[in-house]
Amino acid sequence: MSRIQTTFATLKQQGKTALIPYITAGDPHPKHTVNLMHTLVKNGADMIELGVPFSDPMADGPVIQRASERALVHKVGLTAVLDMVKEFRQTNQTTPIILMGYANPIEAIGATVFADRAKAADVDGVITVDYPPEECGDFVKELRARNIDPVFLLSPTTEPKRVELIVNQASGFVYYVSLKGVTGAANLDIVEVSARVASIREQTKLPVGVGFGIRDAATAKATAAIADAVVVGSRMVQEIEASNDDNLLGNVAALMQELKAAVDAA
Amino acid sequence: MQLYDMPDARGHFGQFGGTFVAETLVEALEELRVMYEKYRHDPEFLAEYAYDLKHFVGRPSPIYHAKRLSDQIGGAQIYLKREDLNHTGAHKINNTIGQALLAKRMGKPRVIAETGAGQHGVATATIAARLGLECVVYMGSEDVKRQAPNVFRMKLLGATVVPVESGSKTLKDALNEAMRDWVTNVHNTFYIIGTVAGPHPYPMMVRDFQAVIGVEAKEQMLEMAGRQPDAVVACVGGGSNAMGIFYPYIDVPNVRLIGVEAAGHGIETGMHAAPLTANSPVGVLHGNRTYLMQDADGQIIETHSISAGLDYPGVGPEHAWLKDIKRAEYVAITDDEAMAAFHNLCRTEGIIPALESSHALAYGQKLAKTMDKDQIVLVNLSGRGDKDINTVAKLANITL
């Protein structure tokens, strides 16, 4: 079993929903990233989604775009991100790390080399936003061969036939994007999300994470009631953006505690 | 002989092309793919398209034998395909009309577009006005400053121009932003991409709508010269005017197809926009796999060209394919060479060419010089240079 699968299994036994915060590696400065990761775990993160900065983040809204730009000022690319994961693993061997990013940085070094390096850094899952299942068969094989979970997105517009195609390629969990649009957009309609998650569950036994549009304790709680994992991205990045070197870790810890309490109360 | 038949059903040109987009866009592209398949051979749709090309754009655009230029160069005869004479002043309108007519049939009341120099934005705003569609154009904030007259043109035509502040604030960022708009508003919005890039079916669809250039040229060359040219030369940024004139010639033997990229300050300086000539690595951007200017981390790097329309770090996937199968050749022309060709055409033929097209002219002249007087080089004069007079004046330290 992969670390992601183990984590979901344990949480299920405890009757809990996973809380997965997202941060962009290198934001606001590379020196903070590993500390931030430990802070997230200390304050309730069951897994971490770590964004790989990219010059052209087409699927992201302004909040995460700016995070990418802040990281790129310090030239934080895939290699630097993998080094951060290695450093994190020196003191944490249990929390799953899921890389989230775009295809081109992976293409630049090649799928095999990437999979080798990700394994060496002890990465657990990879979400590649612009690799739909039709275009990344070989990549998925390389990941699977190393027991790394390829995690795929499902959207409100994904037809049931495609859901089947996607869940057949995915492992670890699937990530339901609860909104049309880019990350950080508008509010989510929990009734609609609930119906979609139920229909996805009819097609797969994989855990279903829900993200996009979860911005406070109330939406986190409502989502936790219907999903196996709650992913909080733009809200987390906003907190980082609004902080300074002195209050960064404290602010992020406080937000995490609030979200954790909400998710556990569901 | 096996005829050229690309792309495959999923938009692949060999290893290039494809549909590399977030899941949120897959359904929208599938809808577009199905609708385009439905209409691309539909007689009524094609008749409407042909009517607009004739009566609204003024097609066919003529082919012109540039005799004084040919004599001056002293080699092959240079012919120009006059896309500069189209309504709105460039080839871009051929494509925006096709896509806008499709948008109407798909019941989408709102169209969006990305633009660099503003030509595609103007062409989109033009057809949107003509068809009564709402139009939003995304343009890098750097380009908004550099191309003020085109920004004003779009506004006159009723479009909303949105300056894009992210990334390098140029064409590629405008494309990112248009994609974000589309993903959010896909229920009522059609995204009119201006070049032969983007996810499938865009590279194929834009090529098909631009192929009218080559189809006309084949007929006109026979009429005018009694034969096809020895070489067809066109500039390549994303590559839509080049694909348009190349495509009908792909299966014609003995016609060299030559794409001219922007060498900027020179390939060796790194300040250029010539991924094919510079042998840039293969990567994924804007929904397709192609040759891409990037650093070792796979971040897209900034490009440089005097011509905003060629200032793009990638290239349409079909060009990448034509390069690999050696059916087309790709070369590059520097800013200085393009400027010299610009001034030369103004003085010898009384035609002010776009700076983009001046790259094709510069290489066409170089090539013609090495050829015999009875040979023919056909240069695609993709646009007129009125939009560039501020840039040219600035280079000469003249304030207009």
Automatic annotation (TrEMBL), chain A:
On whether NADP is a keyword of this UniProt record, the answer is no
Note the coiled coil stretches, chain numbering. Answer: none
Catalytic activity, EC = 4.2.1.20
UniProt keywords (A-Z) are:
Amino-acid biosynthesis, Aromatic amino acid biosynthesis, Lyase, Tryptophan biosynthesis
* Catalytic residues in the record: 49, 60
> Assembly and partners?
Tetramer of two alpha and two beta chains.
Family named by the database record: Belongs to the TrpA family.
Annotated NCBIfam families? trpA
HAMAP family tied to this protein = Trp_synth_alpha
Record protein name field:
Tryptophan synthase alpha chain
Protein source organism: Methylotenera oryzisoli
TrEMBL record, chain B:
Q: Does the keyword Oxidoreductase apply?
A: no
Question: A GO molecular function for this record?
Answer: tryptophan synthase activity
Listed GO CC annotations: cytoplasm
Q: Which UniProt keywords apply?
A: Amino-acid biosynthesis, Aromatic amino acid biosynthesis, Lyase, Pyridoxal phosphate, Tryptophan biosynthesis
* Presence of keyword Lyase: yes
CDD domains (UniProt xref): Trp-synth_B
Per its record, the protein catalyses: (1S,2R)-1-C-(indol-3-yl)glycerol 3-phosphate + L-serine = D-glyceraldehyde 3-phosphate + L-tryptophan + H2O
Q: Which cofactor does it need?
A: pyridoxal 5'-phosphate
What range(s) does the Tryptophan synthase beta chain-like PALP domain occupy? 58-383
- N6-(pyridoxal phosphate)lysine modification sites are 92
Pathway it acts in?
Amino-acid biosynthesis; L-tryptophan biosynthesis; L-tryptophan from chorismate: step 5/5
EC number of the protein: 4.2.1.20
* Free-text function comment from the UniProt entry: The beta subunit is responsible for the synthesis of L-tryptophan from indole and L-serine.
NCBIfam families linked to this entry? trpB
**Family classification:** Belongs to the TrpB family.
Question: Which proteins does it associate with, and in what oligomeric form?
Answer: Tetramer of two alpha and two beta chains.
Report what the protein is called. Tryptophan synthase beta chain
Q: What organism is this sequence from? A: Methylotenera oryzisoli
